[in-house]
Amino acid sequence: MSELMRWAERLKKVPESRRGFLSKIGKGAILAGMGAFGAGCESFDRGVLGRELIPIVLEDARLAGLPKPDMTVHTEFPFNGEFAPSLLNDDVTPSERHFVRNNSGIPERAVNQDFAGWKLTIDGEVKKPLSLSMRELNQFPQTTMQAVLECAGNGRSLFEPKVGGTPWRRGAVACSEWSGPRLRDLLQAAGVKSSAVYLGCYGEDIPNDGSEPFSRGIPIEKALDEHTLIATMMNGEPLPAAHGFPARLIVPGWIGSAMQKWLTRIWARDIVHDSSKMTGYSYRVPAYPTAPGETPPVEDMVIATAWKVKSLITRPQEYVELKPGASLSARGHAWAGENEIAKVAVSTDFGQQWQEARLTPPANRYAWYHWEADLSFPIRGYYEIWARAYDDKGAAQPFKQPWNPKGYLGNVIHRVPVLVDS
Ligand SMILES: Nc1nc2c(c(=O)[nH]1)N[C@H]1C(S)=C(S)[C@@H](COP(=O)(O)O)O[C@H]1N2
Ligand SMILES: [Mo]
Fold this sequence. Notes:
This protein is of the alpha+beta class. Helix content is 13%, strand content 30%. The ligand Nc1nc2c(c(=O)[nH]1)N[C@H]1C(S)=C(S)[C@@H](COP(=O)(O)O)O[C@H]1N2 binds at residues 98-103, 149, 151, 203, 205, 214, 243, 256-257, 259-262.
């Protein structure tokens, strides 16, 4: 069957309601391979020219079931959307409430949940390069764990002065359950050499406009950590299209961009991975504290890795209205990258008095903690619930957001306004 016919066949499998621009283009036009369809057509043309290795990337996120219900959408292409904190109250985030952060389109394979022809290559500084099918990947011992996944830019909209990039509020974070083989087992099967210091990871979301694919990596030590997974399942089901079907990296405690989706290649390297998303100002932060608005020279930037101590208030919802004398149970989550949470303190009077929240430990290392605090509001007025998490190394969340040029690693305390009036 020609690639052209295969594409048309696959199209038929996409539910009618999700076809989006594909239905607008019309199957006839696709079969004819004619007409101007913008970037979608470009990828299609490359397909005709023997694109066995060039996957088709779809630019209409509706094909992947996006936006999810109640999502706050920042951009539709590439698709970026998050949820309000009050919608993130679940202990384990359901897939339907997991934020989505894409740098380009979604591979057609992911939309069709199609394993055919997919391989994961492990090459570079290894004695025995591997090219694994999903069946082979499933033969490695499987691990299941919950892990916080948070975009490095979460909280970016709270930076002052304002910085460029997707203006995430607080919802580009989630804690779902991930399953799959350990990356370590795959690297060992490939006979990773002692010359390997870093991995460069690649996915199937190759931009249609010919720009460099999104590629990042992690140091070999983190890759060999027993908690670093190649996830093939999310919350007990095959990875959804938007979250990296059929396989993605889970690098617990680290920024989300380390967790390559639609994974196809892991390149063991003898230098720090030097793709565009690893260098310059991309996913890098100043090596020292900087004045707000001050961009240090590029040689003073270092790669952002683990998250810092953070918390979220999921109950009550912002601007809840109460009667004088009301009380409520506030609730939320707390997490701290590579560290553990030591305590969460809560204030309703702008930090003058604090009470310690009850803490429920995480299901496993790298999942989030849950906290709860009983609060009362005796007289009318304007209150703010503040939550401040502390880690086991003595660090606590700041009251004012330290600044960096790209708005990464924001962890300023969460404040929820409460209105009390008779
Ligand atoms: N292949 C690929 N992997 C990727 C990305 C991407 O654009 N392409 N985005 C990264 C970023 S910046 C983040 S924060 C997470 C988001 O994962 P999610 O969409 O499942 O929430 O995926 C990471 N992995
Ligand atoms: Mo991200």
